[in-house]
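hey m, so remember when u said the tokens were messed up on ur end? i reran from scratch. heres the input so u can diff it against urs
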Amino acid sequence: MTAVLRHQPLLRLFCQLISLLPAALLPLPALAADNPADGQATAASDSQSNTDASTSTSETEAQAAAPERVLPDEVRERHAAVLEYLQLFQRSDEIITLSADDQPFYGLFLQERSGQPQGGALILHAEGEHGLWPQSTGMLREVLPDYGWSTLTLQLPDPPALPVPPTSVYQPLDSAAAGQPDQAVDQTADPAATTSTAAEPPQADGEPATAQSNDPKTVAEPIKVDPVKQQQAEQTTRFELASQTYRATTVERIRQGVAYLNGQGQYNLVVIAYGNSANAAAQWLNETVRINESGKAAKGLALIMINAREDTAAKVPLNQQLGTLLIPMFDLLTEDNQLSAYQLHQRAGLMRHKNRLGYQQFQLKTPITDTDADAAMIRRIRGWLRANAAGTRVGLNR
């Protein structure tokens, strides 16, 4: 008992040490708890950095994975199908390669098969078609060689698309435009004081009052540009440049086609134009036709138009171009034409007003896709060619 009492202070000290031991082994939270706002800001910054990095990485991966958007070239594919078709049926000998402005293009040539040559027919297809288009260029190029006409069908470009009307941009109206009343004027105030106050605006402290200039030229006002008008002007400029290139290319291809027919011994030529290609044909004829001393056009050129209509890229209207031609012209129309009866009447009336006796307009009563209409069209064209553009064989003096 005495021994236990003797060691009791030691046991009490040991127990106190044991109670302090867990607190000594715990981590010190004071560093993070001294400034809890700094800890939260650091954690938020690290989270935002990780989020930005992941977003940037995902955007980069999406851009790398997204394929490039390529639109199909419908014009090139359409004409490439013509060449593939002729090669598939072993008719590649009809394909000739010409060049205009250092750009190659194809033509489809067929020699006359009657033994009595009449001349050469240069056939121009309409917009969205090609040289073998059924019920139009393809039909005539196959039939006319049986009646003495060598045919050459040219590859023509499509006119540029019309500019899209710009989207309206609505601007907020100012107080005057919105109809808000002006600030009320105190009628009880002294007029002289009011005039003085209005004429002399308040000056800043320490700055002397200076006279205000009433000359509007000295006031620099910012130039306001209407975004709608600016967009429309840019689209119009691009369309005009593309139209100019289109017209020059089309006329040059016609010129090269005529040169090829001349090289084949064909100097009695008739241009057969479908749809919008009538504008280019009339433009080339106006540049080419020679007028003799008696005021008549030299023989050897004629024009046949089938469902002729205005070209959206033409600089001069079709009727105006036709009115200056003095050559024989046949204006053939079917029920598939895109003109109204008034427009057709205006064209015929203009030619009568110009006293163009070589112009003839004829309307078929059946659509061009009908088989009977094909036969009727061929008969009309054959009869008109025989009466107005028949050629003769000329021998060469050796």
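this time it looks ok to me. Residues 1-5, 28-34, 181-189, 193-199 have pLDDT under 50 and may be disordered. if urs says something different then somethings off w ur setup not the seq
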